[in-house]
Amino acid sequence: MAVNLRILLILTGLRGIHSITTVSKVSVKAGDSITIPCFYESKYINHVKFLCKGYTWTSCSYAVKTNQPSSGKFLISDDKSQRIFTVTINDLTDQDTDYWCAVEIDGGPDVREYFHLSVTRGTPRLYVDHQEITGFNRDTIIISFHRYFGTMKWCRLGSSCVTALSGSIAGARVTITAMVNVFRVTMSGLRTESSGWYLCVSGDFQMPVHVTVTEKPTTTTLATTTTHLTTISPTPEHVNLTTVEVEAYIRASIDIKTLIIPLSLLIFIVLVTLFIWLLLKKHQQNKSASLTKTVAEEEVTYANIGQVRKPSTQTSYTESDVDVMYSSVVAIRQKSVQRVQAIDENVTYSTLA
């Protein structure tokens, strides 16, 4: 009976029973983590949700509840706006195979849905690198799933599926590409309402992925007006700048400033050096002129006095010899520090008898 129940649950796939929709079978690697979404009806928004561990409902045990969102390696959260509660199981082991997504009903049987985890120590049968994917409004995202086999579908949890190579879902265009060991889903023309949980379905396995679509950052028009640059007009190529482009522009401006500052400093140093050199040169010229003026020509007078006894020309011995005194005066005018030869016109001879 238990085997027939599991087969029935797998065959029902995404349809879900008991008012909850979730995955049926997921291939996971031991030691990794997995997040499982559980979609519920609007009438259960304010009810307590929980994860129950065990193969049969009657023997399963509480793992974690929304009124106690963390318990050991289990986490649970409830997104009431999307009507989806998610359970995360960390550090998967061979014992983490059978679980139930459940809603607690006061005074009646709880609403539940079973899912199976196929834990392997090798490569999972169907897996994705990241369960969380983010895109911008009107943009495109590509999600690659590995080791696909069998039939392929791309489904919105609790909604419709795209089974052909192309289609639309949640307001976005969907293209499915099958390659060797890769199942690629391309969603283009994303909208805000495209956010939510999706399932990649291949054969008996599903892999849940959460897509978050946000608005693009506010565009910025960059305009620069200088004496050498023309103002940039708000043409489409300038208006539709993304945050990355704006940051790149800012980085480029910063790089230019890092060059301008050292160059300006170098020019300032050169001008100061030239100014100091001119001051020193002028100072040396003034000092030289002052020195030349100090050593200006001065009048120098030389006097030589000698005494000579001149014998008398007369023959008479009664007259004594006459003493004769000679005096020479020389005046030399020096005009500079350099040696100047005396010129006759600058020499005065004087004879004193």
Automatic annotation (TrEMBL):
Q: What sections of the protein cross the membrane?
A: 259-280
* Subcellular localization, as worded in the UniProt entry: Membrane
Name this protein carries in UniProt: Immunoglobulin domain-containing protein
Q: What does the record give as the organism's lineage?
A: Eukaryota, Metazoa, Chordata, Craniata, Vertebrata
Q: What broad class describes the main subcellular location of this protein? A: membrane
Give the UniProt entry's GO cellular component terms: plasma membrane
Domain Immunoglobulin per the UniProt entry, residue ranges: 23-120, 130-214
The UniProt keyword set, sorted, is: Membrane, Signal, Transmembrane, Transmembrane helix
Cleavable signal peptide? 1-19
In alphabetical order, the GO MF annotations are: transmembrane signaling receptor activity
SUPFAM superfamilies registered for this protein in UniProt: Immunoglobulin
